[in-house]
Structure formats: C-alpha cells, structure tokens
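To close the section, here is one more complete example, presented without commentary so you can practise reading it yourself. The ligand is S-adenosylmethionine.
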Amino acid sequence: MNFSESDAISSDASEGDKAEHDVAAETEGWRTTLREEIVALHQKGEAYTILSLVSTFTENKTRPWDPLLLWVQPQPCCLSALAAHVRAANISALVSVGCGTGLLEWLIQAITGLSVVGYEVNASWWTSKYAPPTFIPLTFVDQEAPPPKVPHTHALMCCYFNNAKVFRQYVSAYEGPVLLIIGATSGDRHTDPHPLDYVDRDTWRLTLTHRISTHDLLAGYHRQTR
Ligand SMILES: C[S@@+](CC[C@H](N)C(=O)[O-])C[C@H]1O[C@@H](n2cnc3c(N)ncnc32)[C@H](O)[C@@H]1O
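Output:
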C-alpha cells in the first residue's frame, strides 16, 4: 500500500468514527432531554401528561424511548386494569420487585391510588451519578440473602424481571392473594419470569391478561382458596 492509499483509508475510518460518535452523542442528547422532561413532569405531579408523552414513542420514531426509564410503555387502561385486579382481592397496595427507576410504580400510585413499594438491589449503583433518575423511594434488599417476604396485604408484582429463580423465591415466601407479571410475549427482549409462567402453578389462577403492546403482556393471577 502506498502512502496516499493508507491516508485515504485512515481518513475514511476517521469519518466513520466521527459519524458513529455523532449518532452516539445525538442519542445521549435525546435520552438526557427525555429524562429531564419526565423528571419535570413528575415533580409537577403530571402523571397523565407523562402517559401522553410515553404514547408518542414507537419503535419506528427517530427519537427512541429510553428503556432504562421503564421497559414498557403503558397507557391509562393498563394501569386501570392492574388496579381493578388488585382491588378485586380486597387489597389496595403492591410491592414491585425489581422496580428500576420506579416510574411505572409512581404512575400506578398517582393514577390509581394504589399504594406502591419498590424493591431494588445495588444501592451503590442507584445512588451513583451514572444511574437514571428515580421516581419513588427505593427499598433496597440484600441480594446475597434470601428475598424478604412481601406482606400479604400487598400484591406481588414484577415488570421485566430478569431472574426467574429469585422471583420464585419471592412467590414461595408470599402468602397474599395477587400476583402480577409484566413482560414480553414476543420480540427479542429478555424477561424471566414470562407473564404466563404461573398459569395453573401451585394455587395461582390466571384471572387477567391485558396487552400493553404487541410485545408486552400484563398477566394477573389470584390465589385460589378452597
Ligand atoms: C430489567 S430491569 C426492570 C426494571 C423495571 N421493572 C422496568 O420495567 O423498567 C430488572 C431489575 O430487577 C432488579 N433486581 C435484580 N435482582 C433483584 C432482586 N433480587 N430483588 C429486587 N430487584 C432485583 C435489577 O436491579 C433491575 O433493576
């Protein structure tokens, strides 16, 4: 290769690097703006405006949704269906295991009036400068110890949890009447447990399915009592 060829290649490579850098910077910019918008609306208590904003995002839009804020994009009907399912068992509170930022949990609380507690792990990450914003106070649990027992006065929920074995431990210890699992039924996103994993398992009976999107399902279970 002579000098001018190698120069041309390195100039092409740097153009490529620059384009990649520009896309990354633009995506980072969108993400920051979206987070700022949602934080501002949260501070003003504008839950319905957040849901309207969420509904403007689809996979094909140029400005992408930020899954670190929340893996699903719920609408008011999803939250109403969830709350009705909880209240049908005469309870009005839930624990969300692996709540992440707690955006979904705050929206449930603000829109339906259910009381919501969010469990998370890794306090040092969530209090670091790299973490996304949080929307409810997080209750940190010890990842090395057996999971805490979710009170029977609360429904047990997870949204896009990623450890079926640990979730099974939460369910085994739980003595309450309602289980809610949100996750993927198609697409390439990992979710474990799957929303329908508890169909006819132990004393659980599937009593609600509500589609959040073509990929995401909310499954609700009530405990069958004799
Ligand atoms: C894929 S994220 C989903 C976050 C959020 N629910 C959402 O839908 O955006 C799974 C979350 O579960 C949390 N997690 C993992 N193991 C956990 C455990 N043993 N107890 C509570 N949370 C846990 C992780 O830290 C992570 O934030």
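Once you have examined the tokens, check your reading against these statements. Residues 3-55 form one domain. Residues 1-9 have pLDDT under 50 and may be disordered.
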